[in-house]
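Thread: G3I complex, take 2
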Amino acid sequence: MSKNWLLTRRGVLCLGLGTLASIGTLAKSKALNNPARDFTVVGEASLKERAAAKGLIYGAPAKYRTLSSDAEFAARFPQECAILAAENDLKWRNIRPSPKRFNFTKGDWMLEFARTHDLLFRGHTLVWYKALPKWFKEKVNSQNAERILVDHIDKVVGRYAGQIHSWHVVNEALHLRDGRSDGLRNSPWLDVLGPDYIELAFRAAREADPKSLLVYNENDLWFDGQLWSTTANGEAKRVAVLKLLERLKSRGTPIDVLGIQGHLRGTYMTHLNPKKLRAFLADVADLDLKIMVTELDVRDHKLPKDINVRDRLVATAYEDFLSVVLDEPAVMAVFTWGLSDRDTWLSRFSPRKDGLAVRPLPLDDQLNRKLAWNAMARAFDNAPMR
Ligand code: G3I
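Output below.
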């Protein structure tokens, strides 16, 4: 082993990882089956305060419908979160009722809520293969797509220019099971614009708001192996996203952050490979990119019925994942995909067969802190200072 390998960032990391991985594996096997795992937290500081103490930002998305009608939730949100995102209210389907019309009513209300509660704001999302309006398919074609896309970004990003901490510019552009050599998803955007739609979107977003951090957001990067039939192998997807980022950076694409979504699965946490995930994050950082955990939650629909057991397994997943990810100094923010079990996409998307409510988030449906909250608090408290 050459001396300089040992001294490189990756070399030191790999040596450290060897230890971490063995501890991680040991801890994991113990943690998953260890009812006595300690989730004690010191003090009453909120998640946003504990994150900020280490130079991190913690927050979550919410829906206009929830924030505007649930006063208890609206009061609780700023107590724990430093940043707000619109879960759905700035997606194409929600702001583009027709090709010529934009409806910013809910987006404006969300920005005003953030401003009056001293919250940063994250934009989600400018280009995605889902949540497109019904008219998209019949009206958008290869002749007009570039104008329509650039016009959308100009109008949406331009409207809030200077007020947005970070924009998810392109979301989930990779899908290896579509079989392309570049790993890109056969999305409506690829159909009408080809692979360059990604660079086009980032350049338009930078033009419209030079101040906002520009994020490429991707899912299924956290695990090893293949979890279910529709995903690729996690390692293969990490390789593909690195190649995409390298290609974009080599062309001077204005991209600042990789968003790793982090929709964890409580029954698959043995697929978390600390050593490989940590090395991947180092590779992303070596591209001079920051990293955000953008949609963290833990699917518990197949975990045991007993809430005490289930909450403990969910908390273990949070702590195991975050302890690896927050070790990378380039990681600057953590968002859970929602704050409370009262409003989570998983209630509809992954309900439990026994009919019990799902419990994937840091606060329960009464807005009280759960073990998952403790796990996140401990991860922030134990994270290295940025
Ligand atoms: O509000 C309507 C309601 O009036 C109607 O009765 C109901 C049934 O049709 O639909 C409700 O709207 C749903 C909306 O969520 C609000 O709950 C939409 O149908 C549904 O498609 C939408 O799902 C959202 C999904 O993205 C698609 O946009 C989820 O809330 C949201 O959590 C999810 O978030 C995505 C991220 O944007 C990208 N990463 C993956 C993540 C999870 O899929």
